């Protein structure tokens, strides 16, 4: 016989997607971390904390409103799927408020030491000595900006295509970003360009349209606190590896441009090679964890739906027979 607890859990597991649970856990981790700062808080800290809570309330309202009223209309589904990513990005863009209010320590020296232990030198200085050319700077800066096209393309395609794999993709993709956002906060680092003096390098980066655009984006969005782990590595790497398993043809199309995006992040001195390694670890974890968590979550939803006898219209979809070895999904061309 179903209890009130069964009805409540059945409603949660069917009206909240796995991505919602991941996002809510992330937001509360950030806020708990902000409530117990390492350093004495600044007035900006308390002001931002209250403002951030308002955005959390908006996000929760989106989840509930969609679950109650909008999930029958498919036109709202892409916006709903993107809401955790957009809200998490807002937190990321305000790192220059969060980090200085709770800690005044940067890990740049430690990251440089790891780079030196692995490569014998800073990765940016190695590329500088091998490929330095003033025209090449603008080319690299252009590829650095192409990153945004790579990570937003899956969302744009969702409006015109359908796929049973999209929920798995968006869950893992968002998890990857939220883990990186939180690590940015816990291990703050500015990156070599903003941390070390200009004479740390042999040459100066010549300003141009794309180079200035890159600098303005970083300084205005996160205040520079975005080095470890590298999302310029992690975002495209997740898309690329997901394609490796599900659309091998598109993997080869994206491979060279994404490698150039990764190279640009090092060449333009925004990241250490250690940042890329950290990004790769998060990508691999997210790719492994997302389908496992969704399978567990889906089983719970099925259990409580059967126990309560209520046929919910779920806000997410997980293929019961999904495995990487299943040819039905391997090299599937419509997952975006």
Explain the overall architecture.
By secondary structure, the chain is mainly α. It is 71% helix and 0% strand. It has one domain. The mean pLDDT is 76. The chain contains 14 helices and no strands.
Please compute the radius of gyration using only Cα atoms: 21 Å
Percent in strands = under 5%
Structural class: mainly alpha
Distance between the termini: 41 Å
Oligomer: single chain
Shape: globular
Whole-number mean pLDDT: 76
Helix content: over 70%
The number of helices is 14
The number of domains: 1
H/E element string?
A: HHHHHHHHHHHHHH
Could you give a short account of the major beta sheet? none
Would you count the extended β strands for me? 0
> Which ranges are low-confidence, i.e. pLDDT below 50, for 5 or more consecutive residues?
none
Give structural attributes.
336 residues, 14 helices, mainly alpha
Blueprint (SSEs and pairs):
Elements: H1 4-15, H2 18-35, H3 43-70, H4 77-93, H5 95-102, H6 108-119, H7 123-131, H8 134-158, H9 166-186, H10 192-195, H11 209-221, H12 231-246, H13 248-267, H14 273-308
Put the structure in a nutshell:
The chain has 336 residues and is mainly α. The protein has one domain (4-308).
């Amino acid at each position: 016989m179903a209890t009130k607890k069964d009805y409540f859990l059945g409603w949660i597991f069917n009206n909240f997607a796995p991505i919602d649970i991941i996002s809510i856990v992330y937001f509360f981790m950030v806020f708990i971390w902000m409530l117990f700062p390492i350093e004495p808080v600044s007035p900006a800290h308390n002001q931002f904390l209250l403002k951030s809570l308002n955005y959390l309330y908006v996000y929760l309202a989106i989840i509930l409103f969609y679950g109650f009223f909008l999930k029958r209309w498919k036109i709202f589904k892409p916006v709903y799927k993107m809401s955790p990513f957009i809200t998490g990005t807002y937190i990321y863009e305000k790192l220059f408020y969060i980090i200085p209010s709770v800690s005044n320590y940067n890990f740049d020296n430690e990251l440089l030491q790891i780079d030196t232990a692995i490569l014998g030198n800073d990765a940016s200085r190695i590329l500088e000595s091998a490929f330095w050319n003033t025209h090449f700077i603008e080319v690299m800066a252009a590829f650095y900006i192409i990153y945004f096209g790579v990570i937003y393309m899956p969302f744009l395609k969702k409006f015109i295509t359908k796929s049973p794999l999209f929920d798995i993709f968006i869950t893992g993709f968002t998890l990857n970003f939220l883990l990186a956002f939180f690590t940015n906060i816990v291990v703050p680092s500015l990156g070599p360009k903003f941390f070390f003096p200009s004479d740390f390098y042999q040459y100066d980066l010549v300003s141009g349209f794309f180079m200035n655009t890159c600098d303005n984006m970083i300084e205005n969005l996160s205040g520079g606190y975005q080095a470890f782990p590298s999302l310029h590595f992690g975002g495209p790497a997740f898309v690329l590896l997901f394609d490796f398993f599900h659309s091998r043809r598109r993997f080869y199309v994206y491979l060279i441009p994404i490698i150039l995006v990764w190279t640009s992040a090092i060449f333009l001195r925004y990241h250490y090679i250690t940042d890329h390694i950290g990004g790769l670890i998060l990508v691999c974890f997210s790719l492994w964890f997302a389908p496992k968590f969704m399978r567990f979550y889906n089983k719970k939803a099925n259990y409580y739906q059967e126990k309560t006898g209520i046929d919910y219209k779920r806000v997410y979809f997980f293929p019961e027979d999904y495995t990487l070895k299943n040819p039905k999904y391997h090299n599937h061309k419509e997952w975006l």
